[in-house]
Amino acid sequence: MTSLSGAQVLAKALKQQGVEVVFGIVGIPVVEVADAIQAEGIKFIAFRNEQSCSYAASAWGFLNQKPGVCLVVSGPGVVHALAGVVNSQVNTWPLVLIGGSCETTLEGAGAFQECLQVEMCRPYTKYSARPPTISQIPSTVERAFRYAVTGRPSATYVDLPADFIQGHVEEASVVGVRQVSPTFAQADPADIQRAAEILAAAKSPLIVVGKGAAYARAEAEIRALVDKYQAPFLPTPMGKGVVPDAHPRNVSSARSLALKGADVVLLLGARLNWILHFGRRFNETTKIIQVDISPEEMGVNVPIEVGLQGHLPLV
Length: 315
What we know:
Layout: E1 3-5, H1 6-16, E2 21-24, H2 31-39, E3 43-46, H3 50-64, E4 68-72, H4 76-91, E5 95-101, H5 117-121, E6 127-129, H6 137-149, E7 155-161, H7 162-166, E8 168-170, H8 189-200, E9 205-209, H9 211-215, H10 219-229, E10 233-235, H11 255-261, E11 264-268, E12 287-292, E13 306-309
Helix pairs in contact: 1-2, 1-6, 3-4
């Protein structure tokens, strides 16, 4: 029977999830992991600072709509990589951080760069875990990927002890999993109808194009909406380009006037945070229609007329 090291099991699990590139820094105890990853045909891009490589993986996740993967060493490596993890959590970008850790048999004994990494990452991730066994590495990886892209994208963490990396199991004992395919929600048709009626009755409508629209790659649908409806639109900084800046309905140059004068605002993947003045620049009578993948985001900071939870291109 074929025997696989934990590093090989992890590399095959990443390959199974469609990973094409891994960003990271090699060192004890993840040297073998980097070797195994490259043996599977996955490109490894080496950095000199964990903060930089975690930011790179985070940005890659946003640009490709699937988790960027970052590999770092134990202790300080994971600590430094938290910069990219928190960046992914706040910006809702998919990221999977994989950190080496000390041998399970030496925990609490003062092992090399020993650190409570699973607990440390948990407040800043949707999922933070260590595989129970080497054979269960693929199922932990699958769950990390699923949590990273399902619903509101975010960061996840997988902890890999040194004895798991160097240990061996029979290939037949490795738990089989499938590649994660994100599922997309659609808003209630009755709510969509109600939103359409409110827009049709608007005298001074405004469409706000947010970062979520860029992440969802909703360019074609939103451009069609703007062209057909002929409503002015305002892109947020990371929503720029979904509709060309040169479009005649772009009101960026009259931003304050547009926000204050709108009687109906359609938020497309845009949060009412500091970028949009927490919604306080709208009139008290402004009706807000909010489209977002995250139900928790509905009505944050100001009441909304209609909340449409779903994938932007579908809505």
